Automatic annotation (TrEMBL):
Record-given protein name: DUF2569 domain-containing protein
Annotated keywords: Membrane, Transmembrane, Transmembrane helix
Annotated transmembrane regions: 41-58, 70-91, 127-147, 167-190, 202-221, 241-259
Keyword DNA repair assigned: no
Keyword Transmembrane: yes
Length: 274
């Protein structure tokens, strides 16, 4: 009986290892595909935002009656469309090839016992590169931008200066939130893709900024309180955003600190027991 259990255990272990190896091999293609097709992704994003802008303008509760009021409707969606592109290209320009290898002088992820690696040693390590769990983060960052934009388009109508004052303030606050966070989440994506050592810190900073933005919106909109129905929906939306950020932090923060792949790729260190 005991020998049978050992055989079953070994077979299960082999299956798990084989599955993990296949998953790692498949995930290694994700960053290559993303980088190879970024121009198509950006073109598709721009086209999607153009269609969304057209639809929102046509269905606006405050139809434009001049060039100025039309521009007021279009500008928020133009900024939303431009923010991720600006984030990616700014990050790429800020961290040119070679700069991504410079390690920060101080360590913030202090859990665990680690052994430093030089750049050559890190690149030779099997865990080096934006595959595996990092590929999941890359896809998650892009989906986060897409989902938040979809939520914004559903929850917030296109409004111009003809709208009530509370509506104008709400449009301003929600647009600023989406533009700023889409920008920073795309900066995180670019840094993760290029192996920039500051990526884990930037992602944590963006999470904290996200939380702060939700609190700031609630305070900002309260200056000109909206109707009770709108206020209730806004509280639900902001609360949902806070919950999603906290859930992301609970799931990914331990991985950012303890994952071997993230430590080898971005911190150039491996477990001391390796």
């Amino acid at each position: 009986m005991l020998s049978d259990l050992k055989i079953i255990g070994k077979q299960a272990e082999r299956h798990v290892r084989a599955y993990a190896d296949r998953w790692l091999l498949q995930s290694a293609a994700v960053p290559r595909l993303l980088e190879a097709h970024l121009s198509r992704i950006f073109t598709g994003w721009a086209a999607l935002m153009a269609l969304l802008c057209s639809f929102k303008v046509m269905t606006s509760p405050t139809p434009p009656d001049s060039i100025i009021t039309l521009a007021q409707l279009v500008l928020p969606y133009a900024l939303v469309a431009a923010a991720p592109l600006a984030g990616y290209f700014l990050a790429r320009a800020t961290f040119p090839k070679g700069a991504e290898t410079q390690q920060p002088q101080s360590r913030l992820a202090l859990l665990g016992t680690w052994k430093s690696l030089d750049l050559h040693g890190a690149r030779r390590d099997r865990a080096y590169g934006p595959s595996g769990i990092v590929a999941t983060i890359l896809v998650g960052l892009l989906l986060n931008i897409l989902i938040r934009t979809a939520e914004f388009s559903v929850a917030v109508p296109a409004l111009n200066s003809q709208a009530p004052e509370w509506g104008q303030w709400l449009m301003l606050a929600m647009t600023a939130d989406l533009v700023i966070l889409n920008f920073f989440y795309m900066v995180c994506f670019a840094m993760a893709l290029k192996g920039v050592p500051l990526f884990p810190r930037m992602l944590v900073f963006t999470w904290l900024l996200d939380l702060q933005m939700q609190l700031a919106i609630a305070k900002f909109v309260s200056l000109v309180p909206p109707p009770e129905m709108v206020a209730s929906a806004l509280v639900t939306l902001l609360g949902g955003n806070v919950q999603k950020v906290l859930l992301s932090m609970c799931i990914w923060l331990p991985i950012l600190i303890l994952s071997r792949r993230i430590n080898v790729t971005y911190r150039h260190r491996e477990p001391a027991s390796a």
